[in-house]
Amino acid sequence: MTGMIVMNMEETLMRHTSHDPVTGLPGLPLIRDRLANALQRSRRNGFSLVVLFVDLDGFHLVKDRDGHDIGDRLLKKVAERLAEQIRPGDTLARFANEEFVILCEQIEQPATLSVLADRINEALRQPLECGERQLVVTASVGLAIGNGNTHCVDDLLSHAETAMSAVKEDGGDGWRFFSPGQHDQDQQRLAIVNGLRTAIERNELSIRFQPIVVAESGRIVGAELLLRWNSSEGEIPPAVFIPIAEMTGVIVPIGAWVFRQACLAEADWRRRWGAEAPYVSVNVSPRQLIKESLVEEFAAILRETGADPARLLLEITETALMADVELNLRILRRLTDLGLRVAVDDFGTGYSSLAQLTRLPVAVLKIDRAFVDGLDKRPEHRAVIRAVIGLGRALGLKLVAEGVETDAQCLELRAHGCEFAQGYYFHRPLEEPAFVATLESGLRGGGLPDPALSLYFLIYVSQATPPMSGATLDALREQSRTLNRSTGLTGCLLYQDGLFMQMLEGQREVLSALMDRIKTDPRHRDVRIVIEGLARHRIFLDWGMVVRDLTPGPNEPDFTPWQHRRLSFRDLAEDARTCYVYLTAYAGCGMSEGISVLS
Ligand SMILES: Cc1cc2nc3c(=O)[nH]c(=O)nc-3n(C[C@H](O)[C@H](O)[C@H](O)COP(=O)(O)O)c2cc1C
């Protein structure tokens, strides 16, 4: 009996020295031992082994915000999730802080490792219950493969860590294999961290303004302030230095500097242009959001610069907002109490709970550039864009599409009802003097919309060429729907009693080119324009076709005693306004499905 107690005590002691007390997992010395043994075995059996370095993204935010206790609970939950993903013989260890290491031996097919890495990312994306809170953390995973003949313990651990850092720099939530070139990247990263700390004092930071425009007219209504870093080594792209600044916390002083620049610009522009001055959009990092003093700091900058908070928009990424809604809600309310407005940046890339979104005091959704870019390449991106626009409109939010680069993207976004846009198609990021000149030349033009971008509409009627079978109508619908979507035309085509009536809306040149084709289409004749002209805004979000068969339907009233003359589309065409009212009544009647057959 006594012997057993002694043994248990010894075991507990062992566990405390070699195991991590928070998660109960092996600690650093033990994993090094196991890795050394595994390398020896691999020398004998010839199999490769892999080290996965798993680092939780944004864990420091959770710990800073919620304290060590919640942080520890989260680590425990993460350890459990990770343990569920690995094979019985694999080793899972806590390496340090929010870093875990997994060792898998006897790798026969390295390709299967990508499945494991995917599984780990996916498992961690699911919310974790930590006491009262539901927390979401993602992970950056680096993989290094090796064997006892070519690698030592330190090689594998440092390679896996380097690969993990590369994932982090790409925004985290992913995995990557180590490649030798990444060593140089590691060195570069170190230089960036050191350089960033002194970038403000050394006057190395500068700003650009990328105009935000009304998608239909191109009129500039705002500008996003973008940061540039001209380091002593040359220009470092924001995609490289921002994630590093975020990771190291240097983003906090830089963020305050950027907010001050935004305020100075707002105050200056309002002095120049009064009510016509564009608003200024500025990014706020999650690291800034958790600083208790942020609100006081912003309030002081607003006072000092005399900026109008209502004309400043704080852009916060969807991922940062959703990481902890309760805490963000508190801070955002205080920021909006100052009069500032909030936009959800990169919308569509995170894991928003819609219920949570409606609770946040948000005024604008910025649609992520990846979806805009995929509009003409990936059908699912088109579906996301439509859903986001529909959601934004339903919630009464303004929508800004980011990264608009082509005519077709712009037309399609407008067709779906996205009001504002930003991207190279309109303007590149500009230095302030160039921005001022661009805006002034727009104002000198009386602020009139660019005629090439003007929105036109048109209604015509025509006589169908018989026979018009269901198949002919189907073919016409499919052809027109595809073409109209790609050219940004919206509207509605009606077919009734052998006559067509169609309303089309879109860019003037596109519309007139289509009308040239429609007029000579043998499927109909006697095309007569009822009305055409400038439109204030679009009525339809898409293009659809309604076929109405006028043989009486079972639920219709009996019209036979009705003696008056039946009006055809030809008769309706006498009155443009009636045509307009009749056609636009179909807006929103399932146009996006392309057809509704009424009988
Ligand atoms: C009544 C009617 C309505 C039409 N509506 C459209 C339309 O909205 N969009 C469209 O691209 N084509 C429409 N078409 C088809 C065009 O006339 C033409 O066939 C099509 O644009 C392809 O032209 P293409 O073969 O010269 O490229 C319509 C044709 C008819 C008969």
Properties at a glance:
binds flavin mononucleotide, Rev_trsase/Diguanyl_cyclase, Alpha-Beta Plaits, six-stranded mixed β-sheet, 22 strands, alpha/beta, 3 domains, eight-stranded mixed barrel, TIM Barrel, 599 residues, single chain, repeat
Q: Explain this structure to me?
A:
A hairpin with a 2-residue loop joins strand 2 and strand 3. The protein has 3 domains: 13-180, Alpha-Beta Plaits (2-Layer Sandwich), CATH 3.30.70; 210-444, TIM Barrel (Alpha-Beta Barrel); 452-598, 2-Layer Sandwich (Alpha-Beta Plaits), CATH 3.30.70. Mean pLDDT is 86; it is low at 1-16. The protein starts with a helix and ends with a strand. The chain is 45% helix and 24% strand. The chain is built from 21 helices and 22 strands. With 599 residues, it is an alpha/beta fold. Flavin mononucleotide is lined by residues 462, 476, 479-480, 483-484, 493, 500, 502, 504, 514, 517-518, 521, 523-524.
Q: Which small-molecule species are bound to the chains here? A: flavin mononucleotide
Quaternary structure classification? single chain
Structural class: alpha/beta
Q: Classify the beta-strand content into a percent band.
A: 15-25%
